[in-house]
Automatic annotation (TrEMBL):
One of its GO terms (cellular component) is mitochondrion. Keywords: Metal-binding, Molybdenum, Oxidoreductase. It comes from Artemisia annua (Sweet wormwood). This is Sulfite oxidase. Residues 260-388 form the Moybdenum cofactor oxidoreductase dimerisation domain. It comes from the Eukaryota.
Length: 393
């Protein structure tokens, strides 16, 4: 398309922070160290996880770059950056999380397929851009529309990004039209991240941000938007990112029996400790994140210092100095909550975290209960082993 292109190889990749833990080099997939992840409420852009399916697109001419609107609308339209930037700008603080976050822990139960993410395949950013509901009005679709006069019920986002899963075609995904046209859903066509122009890894010049939903639906490097009567038929909606029971394997899988995953379940992870942590006898600090999909807040984070026999509640916060209260107007409903607790450890033990959201959804205890062949949505209790070293002092 004019102004932006998908390179045929990896010779034009952007620079990345050297502290990132690389899970795959081509295409580039990486996450920050877990302790760095929770050092701030807003994740610095360089520490925000990187997820790509091919070479990172290159913008050659921003003025020529445009997004085309097609499908079940009265007449196709083309919008340039100046058109989108002329609309009211909104800043939405939202956590994006890869559906495969914590896949490595799931693979220890039984082998799964996918990028081996630890606990940091997510990040919390301030996204700046136009609301998709405002943009769709420019092409003749009013707010709070669930079906267009021509029968459109879904909004498909098509990327410039080319990937092998689509046989060299573009990455694509869709959301319901009712969500796209609802201003309260805060779906953005974003051109800023943390107050700066999007960088190439995160979708420059324009990306979709769908808060509360797995990251796979927040399509980067936007090429076109199609209004369709059915859910996107692309690989990542039809043959991936679906939640199957533990009994399903690659020999008996029927992809058509499951809907594409959208909202993320309630999730938490301890980030101040590694999987096996050697510490001194006495008090240790426990810090991490908790987040739920669909705009549901975090009602509680429970911490156990004895493998889940007894529990105590952690303190929760978002912005420093402001008490976090679920559903309060000062709280960011699409964003994670950070938690802190202290444990008195006198012998080798397992420290556990589990979160509860405002709908009283609780993380499942065992990874075996949520195991699935693609290794997505590992929301089981997060556990770290602590080995105590007795000091000679």
């Amino acid at each position: 398309m004019p102004g932006i292109r998908a390179p045929v190889n990896y010779s034009e990749e952007p620079d990345r922070h050297p502290a990132l833990k690389i899970n795959a080099k081509q295409p580039f997939n990486a996450e920050p160290p877990r302790q760095a992840l929770v050092s701030s409420y807003v994740t610095p852009t360089e520490f925000f996880y990187k997820r790509s399916h091919g070479p990172i697109p290159v913008v050659d001419d921003l003025e020529r770059y445009s997004v085309s609107f097609n499908g079940l609308i009265e007449k196709p339209k083309e919008l340039f950056m100046k058109d989108i930037m002329s609309l009211p700008k909104y800043n939405v603080t939202a956590t994006l999380q890869c559906a495969g976050n914590r896949r490595t822990a799931m693979s220890k139960s039984r082998t799964v397929r996918g990028v081996g993410w630890d606990v940091a395949a997510l990040g919390n950013a301030i996204w700046g851009g136009a609301k998709l509901a405002d943009v769709l009005e420019l092409v003749g679709i009013p707010k709070l529309t669930s079906t267009t006069p021509l029968g459109g019920k879904h909004v498909e986002f098509v990327s410039v990004d080319r990937c092998k899963e689509e046989n060299g075609g573009p990455y694509k995904a869709s959301i319901p039209l009712s969500q796209a046209t609802n201003p309260e859903a805060d779906v953005l066509l974003a051109y800023e991240m943390n107050g700066e122009t999007l960088n190439r890894d995160h979708g420059y010049p324009l990306r979709v941000v769908v808060p509360g939903v797995i990251g796979a639906r927040s399509v980067k490097w936007l090429d076109s938007i199609n209004i369709d009567s059915q859910i996107c038929q692309g690989f990542f909606m039809q043959k991936d990112y679906k939640m199957f029971p533990p009994s399903v394997n690659w020999d008996n899988i029927d992809w058509s029996t499951r809907r594409p995953q959208m909202d993320f379940p309630v999730q938490s992870a301890i980030c101040s400790l590694e999987d096996v942590n050697v510490g001194k006898y006495g008090k240790i600090a426990i810090k991490g994140y908790a987040v739920s999909g669909g705009g549901r807040g975090i009602e509680r984070v429970d911490i156990s210092a004895d493998g889940g026999k007894t529990w105590k509640e952690a303190s929760r916060y978002q912005k420093p100095g402001i008490q976090y209260v679920t559903d309060d107007e000062k709280s960011d409903k699409w964003a994670w909550v950070l938690f802190e607790a202290e444990a008195d450890v006198h012998s080798n033990t397992e420290i556990v975290a589990k979160a509860i959201d405002t709908a009283a959804n609780v993380q499942p205890e065992k990874v075996e209960d949520v195991w699935n062949l693609r290794g997505i949505l590992n929301t089981s209790w997060h556990r770290v082993q602590v080995q105590v070293r007795h000091s000679n002092m």
